[in-house]
Design brief:
Blueprint: H1 2-7, H2 10-75, H3 78-82, H4 91-107, E1 113-118, E2 125-126, E3 130-132, H5 142-148, E4 154-161, E5 171-180, E6 187-196, H6 197-208, E7 214-218, E8 224-227, H7 235-238, E9 247-254, E10 257-265, E11 272-278, H8 280-330, H9 345-385, H10 388-404, H11 407-424, E12 430-432, H12 433-450, E13 455-460, E14 469-471, H13 476-490, E15 494-503, E16 507-514, H14 521-533, H15 543-555, E17 561-566, E18 572-579
Parallel strand pairs: 1-3, 13-15
Antiparallel strand pairs: 1-6, 2-3, 4-5, 5-6, 7-8, 7-11, 9-10, 10-11, 12-14, 15-16, 16-18, 17-18
Helix pairs in contact: 2-6, 2-8, 8-9, 10-11, 11-12
Length: 581
């Protein structure tokens, strides 16, 4: 993570931080909004289902009130109530009552059958439209004892399959009323009116149920009166939970499917309507809300990235200008000047940078003149000293040869020595690569005279490179180190290889490799550090190497100079990098 942060620039960091902040805020808002909207959708769906079942309950109440009024109108009919005691003996009264009941059956389509129970008993009588039963036949019924001992004038019986009605064998709902003489207010009998349940289900429930909803009309004992569940064994799966309040709604899972359960108690009768509606529509609404929240979140995130990019671009524009100026100054262009676009902290920093570049330029010009004079003095001093060890060794060789009177060898040695002195003391700072290599060859020949078959020199360079101008005395000091500190200390014969080649278009690489004793790793690292920082050598041993490195860096660039590749007892390779000019 830290590596990733370090790899981002200032502008991208602002974009990432701002976008992450907006994304985090929007994510929290989206989650909160989604949860709140989901809860709101569920609550709204529950309320809607509850209102719907309450409206159905009101319709049922109205329908039951209508059926009750129908039964009441029959119970208070004067002709029926006044002739109840004469129905058994008087056939005319029977016919008169039968005509009234038949006309009522024709007028009121809601009635499926009417039964009259006179208290004076008599023979059971049946007709196509109405039934007269003996009172002894119904005294064993549960409803009889309940109604006769109650102060109420009517009772509603639950659903049962009537044996014979004008509609055939169909489930019916019965209302039983007391028949009271309107003059004497004496109980004369009972009136039982049957209503087909299809009337209730078709006109109220079936027309109000949506989709694959499941409903149940139950009494105060939670016994089923009406339900659209075809298989009675499935009733407990749905209607297993008691409903206590007058109305309400909750969620319930049935066989892996979620339903909204809404219920309401009727106002006029001790019945409750329980309705199961599918939760799929509500789930679809929640899913749409989820998709909408995702879309809003994505859009806001995209807008935040775009806005943060432009804000970061505006804020980082001056920083980019400062960065470009610093890169140009690093490349050596001290004439650079960054434009100041504001007076804030970044503007003050740019102003300080411009002043610093001007100061560095002035200081560099002063130091350059001083250092140039110093380098020239060092070069002249180097050219003047020509390593006393070399001079002493050469004189010893001349002395030894003189004793043996080998005059031709002495002449050659003196000639090469003269060429070396003449080349080293030349006041010109530049020469061709060919001249530098010839000087190195003369220098090695002198040692070969003193140490026959001890030193071998190989030079690999193309003709086109021999005419390239190079600084004077940049190869010979390296060769000298290779002989004294590499080959001679090994006590064995050795070889020095000089390989010159072009690198790219404008760079030249000169590699001087020997087969000497190499360098200790610790001392090699110390020497590399001094070459990198331009420090002074600890002894005169590396003064030539340090001088060459300093001259190359000063003349070309700090990217050029000397690199070392050496291993203990594995020889040393010195590489000189310079620009072709």
């Amino acid at each position: 993570m830290n590596k990733f942060q370090r790899g981002l620039n200032y502008r991208n960091k602002i974009v990432v931080v701002f976008s992450l902040f907006i994304a985090l805020v929007m994510l929290m808002v989206s989650i909160y909004s989604y949860k709140r909207e989901s809860v709101s959708i569920i609550v709204t769906s529950k309320q809607s289902a509850q209102i719907n079942v309450e409206q159905i309950g009101q319709k049922l109440d109205m329908q039951m009130m209508l059926l009750n009024r129908i039964s009441f109108s029959l119970a208070v009919n004067k002709t029926i109530a006044s002739n109840m005691e004469k129905l058994i003996e008087d056939e005319n009264k029977k016919q008169e009552v039968e005509n009234i009941l038949t006309s009522l059956l024709i007028s009121w389509k809601q009635i499926s059958a009417i039964t009259v129970f006179p208290l004076n008993g008599g023979t059971l009588f049946r007709s196509r439209t109405a039934t007269y039963s003996n009172i002894q036949d119904i005294q064993k019924e549960e409803w009889y004892s309940q109604l006769s001992s109650s102060s109420e004038n009517f009772i509603i019986l639950p659903v049962y399959d009537k044996d014979e009605t004008i509609f055939g064998a169909k489930p019916s709902l019965s209302i039983i009323r007391k028949i009271v003489n309107p003059e004497s207010f004496v109980l004369e009998g009972y009136l039982k009116v049957d209503f087909p349940l299809t009337y209730i289900t078709h006109n109220v429930l079936e027309s109000s149920i949506i989709g694959d909803g499941v409903y149940k009309l139950q009494d105060q004992l939670e016994q089923t009166i009406i339900s659209n569940v075809k298989d009675k064994e499935e009733l407990p799966l749905f209607f297993s939970k008691s409903v206590e309040p007058s109305s309400g709604a909750y969620l319930q899972n049935v066989n892996g499917n979620t339903y909204i359960v809404s219920y309401a108690k009727l106002d006029q009768y001790p019945w409750s309507l329980v309705y199961y509606s599918s939760f799929k529509k509500t789930q679809n609404k929640i899913q749409r809300a989820y998709v909408i929240q995702i879309a809003i979140f994505s859009l806001c995130l995209l807008l935040s990235i775009i806005v943060s990019y432009f804000i970061a671009r505006r804020l980082s524009l001056q920083i980019y200008d400062l960065k470009k100026g610093m890169l140009k100054a690093e490349e050596g262009n001290l004439n650079v000047k960054v434009k100041i676009r504001s007076r804030d902290e970044i503007g003050v920093l740019i102003h300080s940078f411009n002043r610093m570049v001007v100061g560095i330029k002035d200081l560099y010009e002063k130091l350059y003149v001083a250092e140039l004079g110093e380098k020239n003095a060092q070069l002249q001093a180097l050219q003047a000293q020509i390593n006393p060890h070399f001079l002493f060794n050469t004189l010893e060789a001349i002395d030894a040869l003189a004793l043996s009177k080998e005059s031709e060898v002495i002449s050659e040695l003196i000639l090469k020595m003269s060429n070396c002195f003449r080349y080293a003391l030349n006041s010109q700072s530049n020469c061709t690569l060919k001249e530098e290599l010839e000087h190195c060859n003369d220098y090695v020949d002198i040692f070969r005279i003193k140490y026959p078959d001890k030193i071998e020199l190989r030079v690999d360079v193309t003709e086109e490179l021999k005419h390239i101008p190079v600084p004077r005395l940049i190869i010979q000091p390296i060769v000298e180190n290779a002989i004294h500190h590499g080959i001679l200390k090994s006590g064995k014969s050795g070889r020095i290889t000089i390989n010159v080649r072009k690198v790219g278009i404008e760079e030249l690489l000169i590699e001087i490799k020997d087969t000497g004793i190499g360098m200790d790793p610790v001392k090699r690292k110390q020497l590399e550090e001094r070459l990198r920082t331009g420090g002074l050598p600890e002894t005169d041993r590396h003064i030539g190497l340090m001088n060459v490195n300093s001259r190359l860096k000063h003349r070309y660039d700090t990217n050029y100079g000397i690199s070392i590749d050496s291993a203990e007892n594995g020889g040393t390779k010195i590489s000189l990098y310079m620009r072709i000019s």
